[in-house]
Specification:
This protein has a domain of 182 residues. The protein starts with a strand and ends in a 10-residue tail after the last helix. It is mainly alpha-helical and 275 residues long. It has a two-stranded parallel ribbon with strand order 1-4. A hairpin with a 2-residue loop joins strand 2 and strand 3. The protein contains nine helices and four strands; from the N terminus they run E-E-E-H-H-H-H-H-E-H-H-H-H. Helix 5 runs antiparallel to helix 6.
């Protein structure tokens, strides 16, 4: 059994014009993720043979930021806690109270990316492939933020690395934030960057990431404590055993598998054939 280090979620607190404000680790990791994206994305684009003007590059980063924030929040509202927010619509804007969804954020980024590519007459897959290793870094940082906040912990366990969190009931639990940090951040980061460098098949990095995330998240949900949602109280688990996270991840696996099959089914161009 291990004790959680009980790190304060706040880096610093200060008073500004009578208002108590704080800088939180989770928010800092969000900002750090966007900074890393700005610094790394151009180099990754070169691996896909894609060049953007300065205006296009800055616009692409802005679209990603908007997709993450709006998609993440709306995804949480729609996928995870719609019943609550229908009764308390103003709470949708209380983002400082938490409530972001990766599935919603991913969908938001995809939609924002498609809009950007159509406006600039660019192919979506080369830009998406180049972004995936950076997405993995952002995921890892986000899970580190969850760990510092002592939130999203797992179910009780007797395993030696079971951790007692200050926000739980005193039982040792699976540190699922660290499982996700390792699998979604480190493992998927290495795999996606390797594929980005080694394969030229457009879309493979993107759909491999979607599929792998779905698999890892689906498995981790078995040992992760489900969110305390009114949905489960009213309707129970989906199909009797699936959490909402597992259901959404299962859809990701199916979609990714279909598109990867389509990618490899597509006939390869013959280099000796002249058109």
């Amino acid at each position: 059994m291990i004790q959680h280090p009980n790190i304060s979620p706040d880096i610093v607190r200060f008073n500004l014009a009578g208002m108590q404000l704080q800088v939180r680790w989770y928010g800092l990791f969000y900002v750090l993720s966007f900074v890393i994206a700005f610094l790394m994305y151009r180099q990754n684009l070169k691996l896909r043979g894609t060049k953007l003007s300065r205006e296009q590059y800055e616009s692409a980063i802005f679209h990603v930021m908007l997709g993450v924030i709006l998609g993440g929040r709306l995804g949480y509202v729609l996928f995870y806690n719609l019943l609550f927010y229908l009764q308390n619509p103003l709470a949708i804007f209380a983002v400082w109270e938490g409530g972001m969804s990766f599935h919603g954020g991913a969908l938001g980024v995809i939609i924002a990316g498609i809009i950007f590519c159509r406006r600039n007459k660019l192919g979506f897959y080369p830009l998406a492939d180049a972004a995936i290793p950076i997405v993995a870094i952002g995921l890892g940082l986000g899970r580190l933020g969850n760990f510092i906040n002592a939130e999203l912990w797992g179910k009780p366990t007797n395993l030696p690395w079971g951790m007692v969190f200050p926000t739980s009931d005193g039982l040792p639990r699976h540190p699922t934030q660290l499982y996700e940090l390792f699998l979604e951040g480190i493992v998927m980061g290495f795999i996606s960057y390797y594929l980005l460098r080694k394969t030229k098949k457009e879309g493979l990095v993107f759909f491999s990431f979607i599929g792998l995330y779905g698999v890892f998240r689906f498995l981790i949900e078995f040992v992760r404590e489900p969110d305390d949602l009114e949905f489960y109280t009213r309707f129970g688990y989906i199909f009797g055993f699936m959490t909402i996270g597992q259901f959404l991840s299962f859809i990701m696996i199916l979609v990714a598998g279909w598109f990867i099959w389509k990618l490899y089914k597509k006939p390869q161009a013959n280099p000796d054939q002249h058109v």
